[in-house]
Amino acid sequence: MSCLFCRIVAGEIPSRVVYADDTAIAFLDINPWHRGHTLVIPRRHVDDVVSDPAALPEIAPAIAATAKLLVEKLGCDGINLLSNAGAVAGQEVFHLHVHIIPRYASSPGLRAMIGPDPAIDVDEVFAALRG
Ligand code: 5GP
Ligand code: ZN
Predict the structure, then answer these.
(1) What CA–CA distance (Å, rounded) separates 25 from 97?
(2) CATH of residue 98
(3) Whole-angstrom Cα distance, residue 74 to residue 7?
(4) In a domain, 130, yes or no
(5) DSSP β-bridge partners for residue 79
(6) Where in the sequence is the domain holding 69, given as residue range(s)?
(7) pLDDT tens across 6-28, in order?
(8) Cα–Cα 20 to 30 A to 23, which of 7, 11, 66, 80?
(9) pLDDT tens-digit readout, 64-97
(10) Residue 66: inside a domain, yes or no?
(11) How many domains does the structure of the chain reveal?
């Protein structure tokens, strides 16, 4: 199995899972842009949001539940949803994923959305979400 995210679903590669159901899992991004940056993916392999129109509706409940969890546990002030389809759009892992990006009043606006923040301690965030 060569797909990185299929291997995460299979448990072959460790991840910090914050939500799971029969169809999807959500885990913390290893290189977060903002505190609580999470990826929601279908358990089944789908290349991207365009290649299988059924996939996004399938994972919609997981996206909504994860967004609610992030708001409730991290107290973020807003959320961005993003799914890159195709290398030209910036997609680097070719297994459909929706980025859920919690946003805080200290760093507002769309232009401040993108870009890794190495100061974020992903294990601290994971502990906050599980508590
Ligand atoms: P893309 O650019 O394809 O939309 O986003 C891929 C995302 O996957 C990036 O934000 C990147 O940090 C994240 N990522 C890549 N490899 C791993 C990994 O092994 N574990 C986790 N949790 N996230 C990963
Ligand atoms: Zn896959």
Answers:
(1) 10
(2) 3.30.428.10
(3) 28
(4) no
(5) 102
(6) 4-125
(7) 999 999 999 999 999 999 999 99
(8) 80
(9) 999 999 999 999 999 999 999 999 999 999 999 9
(10) yes
(11) 1
